[in-house]
Every structure is written in structure tokens, then in C-alpha cells.
Amino acid sequence: MKFAAFIMTYERPQLILDTISKLLEQTLPPVKIVVIDNSETTLTQIRLEEFNSPIVVYHRVGYNSGPSGAAAIALKMLADEGYDWIYWGDDDDPPQHSRIFEQLLDLAQSLPYCGSVGCVGHFFDPKKGIINRVPNIQLQGKGHIEVDTIAGGMTKIVNGKMIREYDILPEKEFFFGFEDLDIDLKIQKAGFHLYVDKEIYLNGRIKSGKINLHVRKINKPTLQTLWREYYSIRNLMYIFWRNKLYSAFLRILVVKSLKMVFNFRYSFAIGCYTTKITLLAFAHFFQGKMGLRVKPLKK
């Protein structure tokens, strides 16, 4: 078995070194780690040259391609090089503990038509277009459970042979948001499955204090975080339309339109900015405009 990893990063040179170190501490470490650098400066490149590890390969994108672009570049690169399994990593989400790769790869290789494994997964409701939490009761005992999507920051490991043979990659023009759902729906459409280990999942939920979390807490939006909503809306519309999930497509139009009105309860500025980015997301979807379009507001 050939196992490689990639880590995507943007202007966080020290953090990427800490994450690489945790990958190297695994009982089953990758034989190659590719750092996909979306940075505008060369600070990350300099720190990696100082780190000087023979298995770490630096790849500078040359522009900010976002998590979507970085994942598409790395998966294509490593799959073409013949790797069987590929770890999908963020610079700020290292593995939970030193045996996690070994445990997940054992699971992946034991199951037929396994497209991806991870520590945490969710169910997806194609009619409503929403991602649902796996109930605690379904995580009891040993073994695994099949899910519909595994987020990129949840120790996601993808089948490299599947990528090579079926050309399954995330939509690189998403820039940011739901690139994991995008590739996971493609994986299932190709006849493969996604699995998580029940013990790893439940233990992680307990340690993070989320065992009794039944209703997602809605945090008050801020002008500095609302920019993410643009990509969520636009990219989900793209996913729903391409997969012919028309009820989910109509639902997001209605729900996000109502949210433009409801967010005025927080403040006039938040209501106005919500309206602006929502209408922009709608317009850009129908105009076919993808990629980086909205940046965070300066504080």
C-alpha cells in the first residue's frame, strides 16, 4: 500500500510545521507529504526549506486557489503518481492521535468499494439539501458506519485508485466551501462508499463535549464572518443544480431570501451586508461566475 498526504495552507508557516510534525509522529506515516501553498508571500517556503525533510514536497500555487483549488491540485498530483490512499489535510486540523492513520487505513482496506474514510461524517438529505448529524445511538459499539459526507478537516483519506480511474476531483472553481460534499457526492455516484469508525467518532464527540449536542447553536453573524455565506450559497446552488436536486435548489433560494430579511434583527449593517452577498451569490450562480469573488471585510 502506498500512502501519501497533502496539507493545504495559506500564510501560516509555523502552524504548517506543527501539523507536519504530527503527521510524521503517526504509527503509519505517509511516505510523502505535499504542502500546497496558496500563500502570497514566501514565508512558508522558507520555513519548509529550514525544516528540511526528505519526504516533504513543497508546491506553490502562485495565487490563492482556496481549499477547493488546493485539494483538486493535490489529489490529482498524488493519484497520478500511483498512491493508493491520500490524506486530505488542513494546516490547522492535525490528526487526533498517533494511531489514527493506521486505524483508518485498516478500515479502508477491509471494505470493498471504499471511496473515503474519516473520523467524522454526516448524513445528507438530498430533498432538503441539508447535512444531518449522526445520532449517538448509531455510534454505539465497535465497527463502522456508512455516511454521505466527510469534511476535509476530519482526517479524510481518499482512495487514489478511484480518483485515477474515475477522474473524481472536487470542483476547483468553488474556491471555498462544500468542496468536500461535492467530491463525496461524486464518489457515491461512481458506486463507492464513505465510512467512519464508530469508536473513533464517538470518542471524538465525547472529548470535544458534543455528545449531548442535539440542536446546532446559531451564532450571531458578524460583518467579518458573513463573507463565507456567499460561497456557501453559490456553491450549494451549483451542487444541487448539477446533481438535479431541484427541491434542495428551490429550498436554498427560499431560505436564503428569508434570511436577508431576518438578519436585520441583529443590526441594519448586518442585514444590508447579508442582502448584498446573498443577491451576489444568486447572480453569480446564474451568470456562471465562480472562483474567488468575495473577500473578508477588514476589521
List segments where confidence is low: pLDDT < 50 over at least 5 consecutive residues. Answer: none
Alpha-carbon Rg, integer = 19 Å
Total individual domains: 2
Please give the CATH class of the largest domain.
Alpha Beta
By secondary-structure content and strand pairing, the structural class works out as alpha/beta
Number of helices: 10
What's the count of strands?
A: 10
For the biggest β-sheet, the strand order reads: 3-2-1-4-9-5-10-8
Mean pLDDT: 94
Report how far the terminal alpha carbons are from each other: 48 Å
Query: What is the succession of H and E elements?
Result: EHEHEHEHEEEEEHHEHHHH
Largest sheet geometry: 8 strands, mixed
- Helix fraction, binned, reads 40-55%
Question: How large a portion of the residues is in β-strands, by DSSP E?
Answer: 15-25%
Shape: globular
Helix/strand layout:
Blueprint: E1 3-9, H1 13-24, E2 32-37, H2 43-51, E3 56-60, H3 66-80, E4 85-90, H4 100-110, E5 114-118, E6 123-125, E7 130-132, E8 144-147, E9 156-159, H5 160-166, H6 179-189, E10 193-197, H7 198-207, H8 227-242, H9 246-262, H10 268-287
